[in-house]
Amino acid sequence: MRMTANQVQGSAIRVQGLQKSYKELRVLRGVDFEVARGSIFALLGSNGAGKTTVVKILSTLLKADAGTARVHGFDVAAQAAEVRESISLTGQFAAVDEILSGRENLVLVARLRHLKDPGTIADDLLRRFSLTEAGGRKVSTYSGGMRRRLDIAMSLIGDPPVIFLDEPTAGLDPQARIEVWQAVKELAGRGTTVLLTTQYLDEAEQLADRIAILHEGRIIVNGTLAELKQLLPPAKVEYVEKQPTLEDVFLTLVGTANTASQPG
Fold it and tell me: In total, how many domains does the chain have?
């Protein structure tokens, strides 16, 4: 698909005045934001804030009641087919076939998309997501983090310029979450635009170039992590030693245990 100059230079995603209600329940009350190309944008909010509704509208699965949205230069209402060709969507649950191996899952999707040399595509994605050694095993033997990484890898077949990750680490253990975070950073590093929805504060802090907080159907703040931190006055505290975070403790102990379990 050939892109216009406007598509190349403009924002990857532009949302203005988005509204959506389910009968009497107003889920979105006028949502506005833009996502720069090749960036990671986190839509942060609690359950029921409307995050998934935004993603469904942007991925053409749901029609808005009012407002406009453009993805990769295309209007989601008037140019739905073009939008769908430009995106990939990964939901909260890994959409992988457990009977097949990881490589077979990837080859199957590449064939369904009528791409040349699906085996090479599969092997490249297995390398990118550190799944080469597990590629020949059935997905039923994979850990939660491995399944999620495979799911994201599958969504990249065909090189979509924009990817939506809706609660990608929901239900995963700490180690698996970190594995997924590394995969997401890899996406943005290669120029993919990522819109990430999450309810985890540390996830948004670790990954996002910009963070928008969605509350009661509206974006109440939107900025970089540094900009958001400036909204609160600095706290005056006495000097104390920096205590390790739970993540520091977890990674140190797990790393030590893994090293100790390896044969000498």
Answer: 1
